Amino acid sequence: MARLLDKVEAQLAPANGLIILLGTGFRGTFLPDFHQRRLSYPGPDIVYLMSANGSTHEDHVTLEAWDGPPPPDDDADLSETTELHLSEGQLYVSRQMRSAASPILSAGPAGRFRMRANVFGRTALAARYAANSDQDGPGLTERVRVRLWPLAD
């Protein structure tokens, strides 16, 4: 059974519907095709995560490092598994590439990782926005859990 190695958390308001995860080795730019309607858009040392539509919610983001495939999150509203390359084996939640919103997660040695992004609370948020209940207030939080584990080369 896989073991959880490290975990970091951040709470932030998404800007332009995006949550950005940066590897400590990120240099340059990465602009994916956002018309693909995906949950995550990984590039070298960067991941764009799509947040819920709406302007007044916050995202609670948890990054986890595992030594192998973690158990599934069967209660997630959305889930997507993809691959990510981390040149230094470290990742953090960024505030629009200006500052860190979380501590740095040590995912393992530099290399390729499998990444599973799970979203919780998006269905409830969408229902509140549809009912025009988008005022600031408690309960307008979406939870995002990103789990990483190394891929064997």
Would you identify the regions where 5 or more consecutive residues have pLDDT less than 50?
Answer: none
User: Within the CATH hierarchy, at the fold level, what is the topology?
Assistant: Substrate Binding Domain Of DNAk, Chain A, domain 1
Form type: globular
Mean pLDDT over the residues: 88
Helix content: under 10%
As a percent range, the share of strand residues is over 45%
- Give the biggest sheet: 6 strands, antiparallel
Structural class: mainly beta
Q: How many DSSP H or I helices? A: 1
Can you tell me about this structure?
The chain is mainly beta and 153 residues long. It has a single domain, classed as Substrate Binding Domain Of DNAk, Chain A, domain 1 (Sandwich), CATH 2.60.34. Helix content is 6%, strand content 47%. The chain has one helix and eleven strands; from the N terminus they run ββββββββββαβ. Strands 2, 3, 4, 7, 8 and 9 form a six-stranded antiparallel sheet that branches. A five-stranded mixed sheet has the order 1-5-11-10-6. The longest helix is centred in the last third of the chain and has 9 residues, at 122-130. It is globular and about 50 Å long.
Describe the secondary-structure layout.
Blueprint: E1 4-12, E2 18-23, E3 40-43, E4 46-50, E5 58-66, E6 78-86, E7 90-95, E8 99-100, E9 105-106, E10 111-120, H1 122-130, E11 141-150
Parallel strand pairs: 5-11
Antiparallel strand pairs: 1-5, 2-4, 2-7, 3-4, 6-10, 7-8, 7-9, 10-11
